[in-house]
Amino acid sequence: KRSPGRFAVLSHNHPACLEAVFAAALTGTTAVILNWRLPDDVIIEILRREQAKLLFVGSEFAERLERIRPELDELDTVIMVGPPSDNPQGTDDYELWIDLHEASEGMYAKHHPNADDLVLQVHVADDQEHVSLTHRALILGVAEVSPEPGETKVVADPLFLMRGVLDALHGIRH
User: What 3-state DSSP class applies to 37?
Assistant: First the structure.
């Protein structure tokens, strides 16, 4: 049975957004990629509705997190992604967290992915407008991204837009 767990990412185009998609696929959870352009009250509502217990936040949104954190009682863990903006040589909590949660052989043996498992949810505009993708939909979406021979695909869109995610995954695939 699929775990209903969800975790969220609030960050600019950072590898953590794509790593979240892979992690969700491997662990039977759903990655919720948040549109960082949304106002604070909408971000709060999305996180509450999706019941995210874990939030990865780009260090560029540290001040925003301070504003919204008191409204998110059900959020258990916040991991900062990237070094603090006031100290570029500082510690990257995300990389430390990844090191502590390194995948080991057999770690995902309990979860057998199904093509119809929900893997990714991206929130585009308001708190009700979002796109959800299963394993199957992601694979088909990436397959449809077809640059001309010799053309390099550049990810110019934010990763909270479906086109940005599909372009980035296509770039990894090829």
Answer: coil
pTM of the complete model beyond 0.85: no
- The conformational region for residue 134 under phi > 0 = left, psi -120 to 50 = alpha, else beta, is beta
Tokens, residue 7:
């975790």
* Helix residue spans in the chain (DSSP H): 15-27, 40-50, 62-68, 93-100, 135-144, 162-173
Query: Would you give the distance in Å from CA 37 to the centre of its chain?
Result: 15
What is the C-alpha to C-alpha distance for residues 150 and 31, in angstroms, rounded to an integer?
32
| pLDDT tens per residue across all 174 residues of the chain | 344 588 999 998 888 888 888 888 878 888 999 999 999 999 999 999 889 999 999 999 999 999 999 999 999 999 999 887 777 777 788 888 887 876 655 555 555 667 777 788 887 666 566 777 777 777 778 777 776 666 666 677 888 877 788 888 777 765
Q: Which two tokens stand for residue 155?
A: 């990810």
Q: What stretch of H or E contains 31?
A: strand 30-33
Q: β-pairing, 130-134 with 118-123?
A: antiparallel
